[in-house]
Predict the structure.
Amino acid sequence: MNLTFDEARKLFHELINVKYDSKAVDVLIAPPALYLSPLAIANSSDILIAAQNCHHEEKGAFTGEWSAAMLASVRVDHCIVGHSERRALFNETDE
């Protein structure tokens, strides 16, 4: 929860212009969920886009959550799972 959408989009475009060896380095960003779809769909670079979280169920009444299938449908194919902040603040575990 650190950037507005315009700030995140600007940072993303700045990262696109960074010169790196895409065969030796993978660049991955994990923007807030609200920004995932517009950034991922517009992404034509080698930068990978990850979700910051993902619900374990495929579908159902889980307000505010998103499934792996939902993420994949907007071209997001990476996810941070078990993040230290989620463990510390929401008492999430390996289960």
Summary: The first strand starts at residue 28 and ends at 29. The beta strands are 28-29, 48-51, 78-79. The chain has a mean pLDDT of 88.
